[in-house]
């Protein structure tokens, strides 16, 4: 097994109103010598905004805003903007997040040229009722039977979260993963303008073709979901994602995918990369949570930033080469259906 080092908590809630309940689930990106961190901040009443801080070293916060960096602006996100991830593609920063209107939680996108001002692109995942989903996906009985388990009512909007972009175009395509429980799915498009209602209806009709990861081992048997933006290595895309077991314990998991065919699974760890075992992970607003959302590479060290106990931000580190080698020891090529 690969050796993981728990680096501990690096950010806790400050004595300011907008993060009076919790800080968690950060997006990170290195720009020059600085690591920019955009994190979910929760105030009383479960209202989320995005906070911001700068790290001058992977574990050292050097500057932190005392007010929200990004707040809800539109009806679809009126109750909160949550769980950001960020990448840099074609000269622009892509920040995905969960837009929550008090009832529906859906993947949304904002883009920026300078990390100072962001332009909202809106919800970019399907906005379908569960009844519509059933009708579109009816050609695949397995999909309907497994995905229906989370429906509250036929008129419920299908929850689609954990949108995470790959950090470059692949064969000319913008690629992102998203999560309709219990699996993770893959999208490849030429431009955001393709994400129309017709696109999503065709996509859902053929959803089995786009399943990227489905739960396998006991540590992820309940469901899986997107984590950090994929890390490009010579051996493939390293995907750090989260898995949830039958006791609702959230763990960080790892898989490797083909560089030019991101739907082709090369290897997956048959065990969790790391799980809650520290007090700050075991106890929190939600107990037993390690929820990875951001990563950077320094030399051969991969730093993984995650929400711990759903109310603080922690970091774990691992040798990137050792992790890839461990993954390859469990290789067995699998492709999207």
From TrEMBL:
Coiled coil: none annotated. CDD domains: GH130 (cd18614). It comes from the Bacteria. InterPro entries: Glyco_hydro_beta-prop_sf, Mannoside_phosphorylase. Keywords: Glycosyltransferase, Transferase. Gene3D superfamilies: Glycosyl hydrolase domain, family 43. Belongs to the glycosyl hydrolase 130 family. This is GH43/DUF377 family glycosyl hydrolase. The lineage of its organism: Bacteria, Pseudomonadati, Bacteroidota, Sphingobacteriia, Sphingobacteriales.
């Amino acid at each position: 097994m690969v050796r993981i080092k728990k680096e501990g908590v690096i950010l806790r809630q400050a004595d300011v109103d907008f993060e009076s309940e919790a800080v968690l689930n950060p997006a990170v990106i290195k720009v020059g010598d600085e690591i920019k961190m955009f994190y979910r901040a929760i105030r009383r009443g479960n209202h989320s905004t995005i906070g911001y801080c700068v790290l001058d070293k992977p574990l050292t916060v050097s500057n932190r805003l005392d007010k929200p960096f990004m707040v809800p602006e539109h009806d679809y996100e009126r109750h909160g903007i949550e769980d950001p991830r960020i990448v840099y593609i074609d000269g622009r920063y892509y920040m995905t997040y969960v837009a929550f209107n008090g009832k529906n939680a859906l993947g949304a996108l904002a883009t920026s040229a300078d990390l100072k001002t962001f332009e909202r692109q809106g919800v970019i995942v399907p906005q379908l009722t569960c009844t519509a989903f059933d009708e579109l996906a009816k050609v695949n009985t397995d999909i309907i039977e497994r995905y229906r388990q989370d429906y509250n009512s036929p008129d419920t909007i299908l929850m689609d979260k954990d949108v995470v972009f790959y950090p470059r175009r692949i064969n000319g395509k913008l690629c992102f993963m998203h999560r309709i429980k219990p699996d993770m799915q893959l999208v490849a498009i030429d431009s955001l303008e393709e994400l129309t209602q017709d696109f999503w209806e065709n996509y859902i009709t053929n959803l089995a073709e786009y399943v990227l990861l489905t739960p396998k081992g006991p540590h992820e048997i309940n469901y899986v979901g997107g984590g950090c933006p994929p890390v490009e290595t010579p051996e493939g895309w390293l995907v750090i994602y989260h898995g949830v077991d039958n006791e609702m314990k959230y763990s960080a998991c790892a898989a490797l995918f083909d560089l030019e065919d991101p739907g082709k699974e090369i290897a997956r760890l048959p065990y969790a990369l790391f799980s809650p075992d520290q007090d700050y992970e075991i106890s929190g607003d939600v107990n037993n949570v390690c929820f990875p959302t951001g990563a950077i590479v320094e030399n051969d060290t991969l730093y993984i930033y995650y929400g711990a106990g759903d109310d603080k931000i922690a970091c774990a580190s691992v040798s990137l080469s050792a992790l890839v080698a461990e993954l390859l020891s469990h290789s067995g090529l699998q492709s999207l259906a």
